[in-house]
Amino acid sequence: MAQHDVEKQIAELRQQIEKYxxxxxxxxxxxxxxxxxxxxxxxxxELEEQYPKYKTPDSPSQRVGGAPLEAFxxxxxxxxxxxxxxxxxxGDLRDFDRRVRQEVGDVxxxxxxxxxxxxxxxxxxxxxFVQGATxxxxxxxxxxTENLKTIRSLPLRLRKQVSIEVRxxxxxxxxxxxxxxxxxxxxxxxxxANPRNAAAGSLRQLDPKVVASRxxxxxVYHVVNAEELGFVSHSESLNYLDELGFKTNPARQVCETIDxxxxxxxxxxxxxxxxxxxxxxxxxxxxxxxxxKQLGATAKSPxxxxxxxxxxxxxxxxxxxxxxxxxxxxxxxxxxILQPVRVAGTIVQRASLHxxxxxxxxxxxxxxxxxxxxxxxxxxxxxxxxxxxxxxxEKPFDMPTHCPACASELVRLDDEVALRCVxxxxxxxxxxxxTHFVSRQAMNIDGLGEKVIAQLFExxxxxxxxxxxxxxxxxxxALERMGExxxxxxxxxxxxxxxxxxxxxxxGLGIRHVGAKAAKTLAEHFETMERLQQATKxxxxxxxxxxxxxxxxxxxxxxxxxxxQLLERLRAYGVNMTYKGAKRTADISSTFAGKTFVLTGTLQxxxxxxxxEKIEALGGKVTGSVSKKTxxxxxxxxxxSKLEKAKQLGITIWDEARFLQEIQQ
Length: 665
Hints:
Elements: H1 3-26, H2 34-50, E1 74-76, E2 86-87, H3 90-104, E3 109-115, E4 118-125, E5 128-134, E6 140-142, H4 145-148, E7 164-171, H5 174-186, H6 195-203, H7 208-212, E8 217-223, H8 234-244, E9 253-255, H9 258-271, E10 279-286, H10 289-295, E11 305-309, E12 314-326, E13 331-343, E14 346-352, H11 356-361, E15 365-366, E16 369-375, E17 379-385, E18 395-396, E19 410-411, E20 419-421, H12 427-437, H13 450-458, H14 473-477, H15 484-497, H16 502-508, H17 516-526, H18 529-533, H19 537-541, H20 548-559, H21 561-572, E21 596-600, H22 608-617, E22 621-623, E23 632-635, H23 641-649, E24 652-655, H24 656-663
Parallel strand pairs: 2-11, 21-22, 21-23, 23-24
Antiparallel strand pairs: 1-6, 3-9, 3-10, 4-5, 4-7, 7-8, 10-11, 12-13, 12-16, 13-14, 13-20, 15-18, 16-17, 19-20
Helix pairs in contact: 1-2, 12-13, 16-17
């Protein structure tokens, strides 16, 4: 075949495939069968393989995923990706409307569905897709260009040769999510909690082929350089995105009044379950760019837009059974087993019942129809029973008198609502203790999930945390679904954990009342495990953060003969027993020294535990609730009641930008 004919055939195939991609993934109106489409793609890939000089980055064949990356490069956003302020009630929206109209006069809004996914920025030069990035901290994101190329509704080449930067939301459709979790379940892998987590986890895969297999999608909703391109309104720029071949959400609506906005919200609150993807609210934006500019923005959020968050969705289903689980401290927790039902985007079959008193207070019976919701749209819980739907077949539930795991008698300690198994040899407690020991905040042993721990326990390979350091490759490869590479990686992670600083080991041991923060305080103060083992109650309570209850627990723990033997074994296996962090000094920053901080909402630049570590390293103290003793409240995204209480008490409030500025001084 002549070179000219090859080039022409490749161009025609690409044009056809791009057309069919747009019909299928954007319009949802395919005009050819999957088999016909696959045959066209096969021909294109064969020709590009045979004539590699004609293979280009914008070819539809590039969506299958390239070679794995070693790491993501950082991308500095030309225009910051700000987050939106939230509204939770009609009053919040009317306040927003009042502020906007006081500033700019008559206004109209564009309402859009708030897709529950991952915000991304896309850059095109002369019509070609050249870079895609995550939001990151709003200023700096990660380059995920190759992963975004696998999303078939995202155009690699626009219909016009324009240079443009747009923002969008990458998400996982419900069907893709269900298929992915089904596959992970078959492989014995941990399931994703919801489509948003699955989408975020997928886009941060270093292997684009993995991303391609997960069938993500995207809606584009913003043109960064719209005014440079001659547009005067947001709605006008969205129509232009359609012309370029982007997938925009067709449910958007221009509203002339705040009452129109409220009507739109009510409509989609009722219809959200019928969508093939998850939404968690509605975004309301001032339409005219001139008015947006006049309203401006804070360091964190534009003043011309707001996100209305839907209240937690409540659904009714039937309680089939109540299952009991034993935690690492021996607490027996009841969990509702439900008829499967979709709540906030995922199928729910289990929900929290908290404790025996909760079941009695709510009069929850086996066979009841119950109302469930996801607390914070994450954790399913039973809200109430529906006695009016009872048939007489329902049965009251009685908590057992003996441990479901070891049959030891259960006890209720003073001032506790929970029933507890106090048998130190209880297999359920041992398994839970092992899982806690290897967790991220403790010894952080990657690859040792609950299922692997269960296998190790069932095969008699581990009975205490010290046994983890006796594992060998031969022992591991004998386990189901444990190959040589996985075994090697796991042994390396176990070996690496020996070098952890003392506070991780202390937290991992699971001493009652000693959380991650207290473990850090103890490690920093005593510096070695030996000194801590010898500490008296008086020495412990002399430390500001350590109370009598915790001190008693620590002294009791280290007095046990089995604990002394465990620590000797860990020392013999080379586990570090000293504090490796920096000691607090007298000249620490006065901005933080001696002050009490509360963290609320989600920080973009770091996790909450990382923020706590930074505050404590600078001499501050972090507590969980706002009171008159609080000095500063650090506010991230989706801040709730703690922010409102801080405002009422007149407490200093820092947004994330201010917090970062202070810790860097």
